[in-house]
What we know:
This protein is mainly alpha-helical. It is built from three helices and two strands; from the N terminus they run ββααα. It starts with a strand and ends in a 10-residue tail after the last helix.
Amino acid sequence: MPRERGGVALPEPTIAEIREAMVYVAYLVEKYGDAHAPVLDRLEREYAAAQSRESPRSRAQRILEAHTFDGGLKAIR
């Protein structure tokens, strides 16, 4: 479903943006309690959905980047 604000279409957030938001909200839940837990739940669902839409090559690149400093193929050597 397209996202809109004030009648203007907003781009879908990237996986990295969703993950960053998830980390921030997780901090809020840990620091201030369960009041923000529903937001964390939604972000986790959106993160899983975004991952399922990602191409296999994009997923492979993301996995390699998480395990190497420069995003190269050194993770498998």
